Amino acid sequence: MSADTDIRAAAFSWLSEQAARHGDAVPWGTLRDGFSYRGARVTLVGPSGIWKPRVLDLPLSITSIPDGRYDDSFTAAGFLSYRYRGKDPHHRDNVGLRELCRTRTPLIYFHRVAHARYMPVWPVFIVEDRPHELCCMVAVEAALKLSPSEGPANAMGSDSIIGVRRYITGETRRRLHQTAFRERVLDAYSGCCSLCRLRHRNLLDAAHIVPDGEPQGDPIVPNGLSLCKIHHAAYDNDLIGISPDYTVHVRRDVRDETDGPMLRHGLQQLHESRVVLPHRRADRPDRDRLAWRYDRFRAA
Description:
By secondary structure, this protein is α+β, with helices and mostly antiparallel strands. The chain has ten helices and 14 strands.
């Protein structure tokens, strides 16, 4: 295994640990500090969106910032169209992307989902270079099951591969949207459960008030609640409900049960308590959506 391959494998392994620890959205500072590899510092991001740490000859990561300077976007064919740095195809960063394409070398894609928090997707491959358009085409490895011997022609190939690529890209985009929703909601609630005030961010979820796929089920903060995983499950299963005046209600049969301390302290004692609300009024749960969901709870 070459040093380049070994370092990239170590970066992927380290990144997997960080994503598990932080709940998919990794803080910028953590990525910037990176990890130690045989006494050398491997940083995963930096000032440039196309980032090459000193220990490597080719870029390790590319980064997109929604509504930023560059209009990176997903194509109908299932690729990420990633913009060059600047307008010079021969800039060293752009040459690095071209070499990644030629050598079929994997790298990491970072997408900013909230302030100073980025969701990683890896490994990805650059499968086509388009210097005349000042961009390159990026594919998620899982979509194409690429090996280093496969060239861009194969990556851009058959209908079956295109179908799989579109599916995987759709799943990746869905994860990006879900992670962005989670981070915005958790930030609005200052990183705590709105029912029990638990502050372990990796144990928190963004719960939809009106479920995704329903009318008014938009992934926006007023349609979200920051809930720990226990209370998210209880809310989704109508064990607890929240009325439009922000009062918590525990289902009567649950209140009448006899069990251990988790039921007593974690659920039963929440009855008729008040939801912890975001500081910004614009981020607070939408009362009409709460009414819709509360009606469903009462029917249950």
